[in-house]
Write a structure and sequence with these properties.
By secondary structure, the chain is mainly β. It is about 10% helix and about 45% strand. The strands form 16 sheets. A five-stranded antiparallel β-sheet has the order 8-7-6-5-12, with no helix packed on it. It has a four-stranded antiparallel β-sheet with strand order 13-60-35-34, with no helix packed on it. A four-stranded antiparallel β-sheet has the order 14-15-16-17, with no helix packed on it. Keywords: DNA-binding.
Length: about 725
């Protein structure tokens, strides 16, 4: 490959970056020829690009697979002119995505990495690397010089060529500049308006059909969590509270006539879950159906004729979640299961009725790494898959023309929004950080969504200090890092980070220095844990068959990675047997779990609990300390039939993962209404000691704890109290 310097000068200066502008390259089905400023899709005509667009795609190609920060692109291509480069770069990437799309393509070639920049998702193939080397004309044999010289000896031919060059090149340059300025109009920026401004998080927006009101779930520090309604025509007025029970109602949906709102109320203390109708004018409530305590998020939607309410419910007989329909025009009607009931390898979760009433779009989750959108014909129940390769769908809604869906995804804690055409399956990115749970106002066509950016860091907390304790950052950056686990033998922590675009395995010194990426599986891994006596780490990742989880073991010194062979594919957090010969891990089947032990050499399985065990640690060769569904910390001898003993009462110990065992005791986190407590339990003295009080929501929700004995510190993943707002958008791709 030959790297040449661009000699093309633009109005704002020369482009000085050395690239492969003399070399053509392919990106899948696209041929890019920088020397002619052109792009050509297989089977299509060649198209001309603006020079800046070519420079952007060439720079991304030359530096593949690195993520290129936006500022680096602006500094390189727009000479650091931020005022011009910010919008120009967004414009260039949008146009490139349009040109790089084939009619059959479902994914974009340029990926946006939140708060960082861009990267190519497929490797460029330079022509001289794939059997099509760039050809150069052979140097001709030297011939006698028959040119006529002037009086000063200067070649007349040379002077003539200069004259011709200036006569042709200058006008052509002017014409080309005019062409580029008129051919490509800058992309129209989406019109985004912030709708809510209250502190805390406003989530799961439900706009009224006429777009005047929105209902949302509001949570803020020290306040009960309920549903609120805001009048958008009177933004100066406070939101009106609709529910008053602090039972964390999430999703709601309006009737199409705007008179009623439907939502769920789940009360675990009373073992009840109900779908309710509330008359908006009077707050009068009416029960509609039962939804089951284990229903998950309880998504819901209503048919365009107001006859059918769909919601995610739970079937106690089959121990499975799915979508249920209840007839609203038939008082007393029982909810009927719409989803599959027998031999299902997926779970239907979210849903959205099409405006024309012919289809329902549903999200189907097959495992922790596979949730995609399917289009189901309501008359025949025939389903067609629309998306591929998604892990977590966080909301979907129909465009009013019934031909497009707007949906949100989450991958490695990064939320993004997309538009998909249900006929061609073409997908366009909305390029909005933190986009989630979109919802259209059915009559006005306004698109609402929540914007929430979540980020975690690894912190240490000194426990044996008499002065005021303040968490200290150990690993903190613009990326998210969590699940730290410390090894005294290695004097290192292992954790997961999304710095590469996926949650991969990383190590660092106990103070956060000397960070090193260990895994490169290009998928999300979870729950790393050091062995007790050597350099191995166990963690959970995606199985090679893509059909669920696998248990991975990595030797951090040799880099050897192996997979533990089992008959299961859905695991909770792993740990090690006391002698490191086996893996102890919760196994999920039919929505319940038990703790098993798997021999590393032969994969032999042994069930250790029979009371819905979730996560356990072997504190002696035969003693298992563990948590289970429900609350409390339990202990049992795995070699006897003696019943388990509750070591810490469920009224005090409620979190299944936020604890760690160390030197005859347990450190654990207790959640209070307005703060967190770090408590130590001594097994010998059977005594609880409160060590630290910390502000509410400073911990990652399902985060773990790890203890550094020589320093008397706890490691954990922390977050700031989340701020989430509801916004309204008009996008040029959504007329």
């Amino acid at each position: 490959m030959i790297s040449v310097k661009s000699a093309v000068c633009y109005r704002r200066g020369s482009f000085m970056h050395q690239t492969k502008l003399g070399n053509s390259f392919r990106l899948g089905y696209c041929l890019i020829q920088p020397s002619t400023l052109s792009i050509q899709l297989d089977g299509c005509e060649k198209q001309t690009l603006q020079p800046k667009f070519v420079e952007v795609i060439s720079y991304l190609a030359e530096h593949y697979p690195r993520v290129i920060p936006r500022q680096e692109l602006i500094d390189t291509i727009w000479n650091g002119n931020d005022s011009v480069g910010e919008k120009a770069l967004t414009n260039a990437v949008w146009h490139l995505r349009q040109h790089l799309k084939s009619p059959d393509a479902e994914k974009e070639i340029i990926e946006t990495i939140r708060k960082v920049g861009y990267r190519l998702v497929i490797a460029p193939q330079w022509l001289d690397e794939v059997g099509a080397p760039a050809s150069y004309p052979a140097k001709p044999d030297r011939q006698p010089d028959h040119r006529v010289s002037g009086r000063d000896g200067t070649s007349i031919t040379k002077g003539l060529l200069k004259f011709v060059a200036y006569s042709v090149v200058v006008p052509c340059s002017i014409l080309l500049s005019w062409y580029y300025l008129t051919q490509y109009e800058p992309i129209q920026e989406p019109d985004i308006q912030r709708v809510t401004t209250d502190p805390g998080s406003e989530l799961y927006v439900a706009p009224s059909p006429d777009g005047r009101y929105i209902v949302y779930h509001w949570r803020t520090f020290g306040q009960p969590i309920n549903l609120f309604m805001r009048d958008l025509e009177q933004p100066q007025m406070p939101a009106r509270q609709l529910t008053f029970d602090n039972l964390r109602q999430r999703f709601s949906v309006w009737s199409n006539d705007g008179q009623y709102l439907y939502f769920h109320r789940r009360n675990r203390l009373q073992s009840s879950c109900e779908i309710l109708q509330i008359k908006v004018d009077t707050n009068q409530e009416k029960p509609i159906a039962s939804c089951g305590l284990n229903s998950g998020f309880i998504y819901m939607d209503i048919s365009p004729d107001d006859r059918i309410l769909a919601f995610q419910g739970y079937d106690d007989k089959t121990n499975s979640r799915g979508i249920y329909f209840v007839e609203l025009d038939n008082p007393g009607a029982e909810a009927v299961r719409f989803s599959c009931t027998v031999d299902c390898d997926y779970t239907d979760r979210d849903m959205a009725f099409s405006p024309d009433g012919q289809h329902i779009a549903v999200t189907r989750r097959r495992n922790s790494y596979d949730e995609n959108i399917y289009l189901v014909d309501l008359a025949t129940k025939n389903a067609r898959q629309l998306t591929e390769g998604e892990e977590n769908i966080t909301g979907l809604t129909w465009h009013t023309d019934s031909t497009k869906l707007v949906y949100a995804t989450e991958r490695a804690d990064v939320s993004s929004g997309y538009i998909i055409d249900i006929h061609s399956k073409k997908i366009h990115s909305l390029n909005i950080d933190g986009f989630g749970f979109p919802a259209y106002s059915r009559k006005t066509g306004e698109l609402f969504y929540e914007q929430r950016v979540r980020q975690s860091k690894i912190l240490s907390l000194q426990l044996n200090n008499t002065v005021s304790r303040t968490p200290f950052p150990v690993v903190e950056s613009k990326f998210s890092h969590h699940s730290p686990n410390y090894s005294k033998r290695m004097d290192k922590i292992v954790y997961v980070s999304n710095e590469s675009g996926h949650y991969e395995l990383w190590t660092a010194d106990s103070d956060g220095r000397n960070r090193q990426q260990l895994s490169r599986l290009k998928t999300n891994v979870r729950y790393p844990r050091w062995s007790n006596g050597d350099s191995r780490v166990v963690f959970i990742g995606q199985a090679e068959s893509n059909r669920g989880d696998a248990i991975y073991i990595m030797d951090t010194e040799s880099g050897k990675l192996s997979t533990l062979s089992t008959d299961y594919d859905d695991f909770d957090r792993p740990s090690w047997s006391y002698d490191d010969s086996a893996i102890v891990v919760g196994v999920y089947e039919n929505s319940t779990s038990e703790i098993y032990q798997f021999d590393i050499d032969n994969g032999t399985a042994r069930q250790l609990t029979a009371d819905s065990g979730r996560f356990g640690i072997m504190t002696t060769p035969t003693t298992l300390v563990y948590t289970r569904h429900g609350r409390g910390l339990w202990q049992r001898d795995i070699d006897t039939d003696a019943p388990p003993v509750e070591k810490i009462d469920s009224r005090v110990f409620s979190h299944p993962y936020a604890w760690t065992y160390a030197a005859g005791g347990v450190y654990f986190r207790r959640n209070r209404s307005d703060h967190h407590q770090i408590i130590h339990y001594d097994f010998d003295q059977q005594r609880l000691t409160t060590l630290v009080r910390l502000p509410i929501r400073t911990f990652r929700s399902y985060g773990t704890l790890s203890f550094l004995p020589q320093e008397g510190k706890l490691l954990y993943a922390g977050t700031e109290y989340p701020q989430a707002d509801i916004k309204k958008m008009k996008h040029p791709l959504l007329p």
